[in-house]
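task queued by scheduler; priority normal; single chain, no ligands, no partner chains; default sampling; output format set to structure tokens
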Amino acid sequence: MNLQGVNQFLAELESHCPQRAIATFLGSDGQPFAIDLTRKGTQIIYGSQPQMKELLIAKLLHHTHPVASLILRSFLPELDELTQLPIKEIRGYVLKRLGSQLEFEKLSPEQMFACQNTDAETGEPLPLEQSVRYC
């Protein structure tokens, strides 16, 4: 099993976790898998159970379809002036499995905005969420 691509991807996720984040993986089974990331100093804790990081790695490497996606919602320490809510940054990734190797591509801020603010069934715009940055 080649963990190089997985380790690079986890480092990418961890680099965007200033305090707390939520990663939501969507594989070919259509069932989302969400995991909390929490920063404790320089360490990132995955979920509330010790095996959660290994479970995420297994999902990244062993999803049955060669393409999957992951959305990362990072909560910043700064508050939105209008709502007084923590500012949330949203990033999206397309994950490709090539054998035991994982490759990832980050979506552009424009692509993330379109994905998060368009009704998938009708194509109509959705109400904008407050205190969000698309990265």
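post-processing summary
- The mean pLDDT is 90.
- The chain has three helices and seven strands.
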